[in-house]
Every structure is written in C-alpha cells, then in structure tokens.
Design goal:
Layout: H1 21-25, E1 35-39, H2 45-52, E2 56-61, H3 64-77, E3 81-85, E4 98-104, H4 112-118, E5 119-130, H5 152-157, E6 161-172, E7 176-186
Parallel strand pairs: 1-2, 1-4, 2-3, 4-5
Antiparallel strand pairs: 5-7, 6-7
Length: 189
C-alpha cells in the first residue's frame, strides 16, 4: 500500500526588516571569524547578517519576544547567534571585548563609555541612530533623549577614531524618509 503521509509544508518566509544600508555598505569590515556584539538588537536583523558573513555574534535586547523571533530566523537561516535577554538600562554583565560592536537605533549617552569599552583593540564601533530632524518627519522617536544633534555622534564616539561618518535624510521602506547619523569608529590602542 502506498505511503499517503505527506511531508510537512516548508516554513513560511521570514519577515524581518532589512538590515541598515550603513551595515550593508560596510560589509567588508565584518570578516569570517570576527567577534561581533549587537546591542539593543531587537529581532536581530543586523546580528543575523553578521552571522551570515561568518562572524561569531552575540546579540542582546531586553525584549525576549523579539529575541525569540531572532532565534527562529537564525535557525531557519542556518546561522548561529548567541541571543541574550539583557536590559541595557540595568547593570550590564561582562560581555568581554569584540572586534565589532554594532549599535543601531539605540541611544544612551551615559552608556557610551561602556560601549567603547566593549570595542577591542583595533576593533570597530558601527553605530547609527536618529537625528533630531526626525521629529519633523512625523515618525520615529520624539524624545530629545533619543535623538542626536548634528555633529554629536562623532563627539560621543571619541576617543575612538572616526573612519567614516554621515548625517543624512535616507529613504526607507514604505516611502518613508529617516534622518540619521552613522559612524564607523576604531579603537587604536
């Protein structure tokens, strides 16, 4: 008698926002075998991309539901990401030092020295977040606490050496535009 059982249907598509253009432009900076930390990772779109490039990735966020989405995406993409539930407003565990520290759409000015300490010698900080101009666009963060002033990101990253930076209005999904500052900075010693 023929086997009438059918295999389970393949899982549906993964719906995560695409990684930041800033990260994609700097893909050459994330090499196989490097260690990467993604702070305030959300569902892990940047962490997943770094893992696809061959990096060993730790991704942290306080929202375990978003982390679970990231874990599922990592499993389906066949990559390993160490997703950790950490409230960055509280005391941080000892993460160690990383070749690349990624911070996208997260701003805590008081924690910038802590973030810089996570960057290993000759390591990189890759950071991007909203500028105060975002308020006029009618979406995104509205509190000055979460918005950068023009020129502020490079000052916050110091004493790391800025290798590349920008402040732009950039088109994103759904015909929206966002105002962001972005930086790649290096720890020299």
């Amino acid at each position: 008698m023929p086997d009438l059982t059918r295999p389970a249907p393949p899982p549906g598509p993964i719906y995560l926002p695409r990684p930041s253009t800033w990260l994609l432009w700097h893909d050459y900076l994330v090499q196989p075998g490097m260690t990467v930390l993604d702070l305030a990772c959300g569902e892990g779109r940047h962490a997943l991309k770094a893992a696809q490039w061959g990096a060993t990735v730790v991704a942290v966020d306080k929202d375990d539901t978003k982390l679970e989405t990231g874990r599922e995406a990592a499993s389906r993409l066949g990559v390993n990401v160490d997703f950790r539930c950490v409230d960055l407003a509280e005391a941080w565990p000892d993460f160690g030092a990383f070749d690349v520290v990624m911070v996208f759409n997260y701003l805590d000015r008081a924690r910038m020295p802590d973030i810089q300490q996570l960057v290993g010698t000759r390591g990189l900080l890759m950071m991007e977040t909203y500028l105060e101009w975002q308020q006029a666009l009618g979406w995104g963060p509205s509190s000055a606490e979460h918005l950068l002033q023009p020129g502020e990101l490079a000052r916050l990253a110091a004493p790391l050496e800025t290798l590349h930076g920008r402040e732009v209005f950039e088109p994103v999904e759904n015909n929206k535009v966002r105002a962001v500052a972005s930086i790649v900075a290096q720890k020299r010693s």
